Amino acid sequence: MDKYSKSIAFVASIVYFSQGALGIASIVLPLHLRSLDLSVGQIATLSSLAAAPWVAKIIYGLLSDSYPLWGYRRKSYLALCSMLSAAGWVFLVVLPPSWHCLLISLMIGNLGFAAMDVVTDGLIVEHSTRETSPVYQGIAWGTRSLGAFLTGLSGGWLAQHWVARDVFLLTATLPLAVFLAVNGILKEKPSPAVPAIQIIESLKQCFRLLLLPNLMWFVGILIFSSTASIFGVPFFFYMKETLGFSETFLGGLISLGWAGALAGSIFYARVLKRISPKKTLYWAIALNSINIFSTLLIFDRRTAFVLSVMGGILLCLTLIPVMSSAALLATHSGVEGTLFAVLMSIYNLGQIGFGYLGGHVYHITGVKVLILIAGLTTLGGLFCVKMLNLKYLKPAV
């Protein structure tokens, strides 16, 4: 059996743990924005726009794959992006709390982490073999989940007992840990640049494939699967301001959701992976709709507790089949990595779009109507699954 690289595994674990641990600011950030007299709709809009860097992941991948920075394709990009992310959180503290300053700060922070995610994925892929790939993927999932689980509850406590600026400065230390790990541990040989024509051909091939009917149906599935973001921010404030949940309890719900997601991943690995991919997609869309509608049943701490665990399980059973199908469709396409990155960017774009829409119509519809819209719209993915042919794509000519 091939041995995995301990240095790469350590750096990857720091990156993914830090990504999950961003939950340490997930409670205090929207509450801080609310204290600045922003409406729920404005906060939803700001959050959606600030997430835009996650749509451009393919650009970060192409840059790090093709153009070495200071002679290196991974190490230097990870160092630069970690500093960018830390700067974004520091800017939240030092810049005036205007709309544009808030948006710029959050976008810089997201840019840093989105690029770190892509570069780390590339680092793992290029050092993976059939034997070591499960080890690296296990590290990625496990450390990200651990970070999110630990910082859910602690983030809620910090939101209740610390001022926002101190939480933001604490959050800025997460990417700094990546910077220290990269410069102290990661070893990499200098790499030459890739010819520009090779990059252009990969992009052209990828977008030719996206125009194939089969892949267009899958894009529909990705968009329908992202509808829940339409009520994410409004429902957070519904729990805080209408149901009266404390910051600590809200953080605990996040941790419970991640615990449920871990249970869901185990159930998928033991049971659902034996079912055909197409049937699994049918189940995934149905469960996603049920999960969205179940949000309407949350009216006190007890129902929130139970449904947060169930929601984490169902969310995992929704996302894993969709992501697995995306990987299956990209296999043997000739541009596997680029095509998969584009599909994930489309999914992120769907989440941003629905979140932006929710922010604009919330004051008209209210949160419960948004939940109904999301639950019904998600079912549109069933038609896309019916039309989908889950076979390998052949390179377009």
Question: How are the SSEs ordered, and which strands pair?
Answer:
Layout: H1 6-20, H2 28-35, H3 40-50, H4 57-66, H5 75-94, H6 99-126, H7 133-161, H8 164-184, H9 196-210, H10 213-224, H11 232-242, H12 247-270, H13 277-294, H14 301-330, H15 336-365, H16 367-378, H17 381-387
List keywords for this structure.
397 residues, globular, Growth Hormone, Chain: A, single chain, 2 domains, 17 helices
Protein model, in words:
This protein has 17 helices and no strands. Mean pLDDT is 87; it is low at 393-397. It is globular. By secondary structure, it is mainly α. The protein has helices at 6-20, 28-35, 40-50, 57-66, 75-94, 99-126, 133-161, 164-184, 196-210, 213-224, 232-242, 247-270, 277-294, 301-330, 336-365, 367-378, 381-387. It folds into 2 domains: 1-194, Growth Hormone, Chain: A (Up-down Bundle); 200-397, Up-down Bundle (Growth Hormone, Chain: A), CATH 1.20.1250.20.
**Low-confidence blocks of residues:** 393-397
The first-level CATH class name of the largest domain: Mainly Alpha
- State the end-to-end CA separation: 38 Å
Mean pLDDT, nearest integer?
87
CATH homologous superfamily label of the largest domain:
MFS general substrate transporter like domains
Structural class: mainly alpha
Examine the coordinates and then state which fold CATH places here, giving the name of the CATH topology of the largest domain: Growth Hormone, Chain: A
SS strand fraction: under 5%
Question: What would you say the CATH architecture of the largest domain is?
Answer: Up-down Bundle
What's the main sheet like?
none
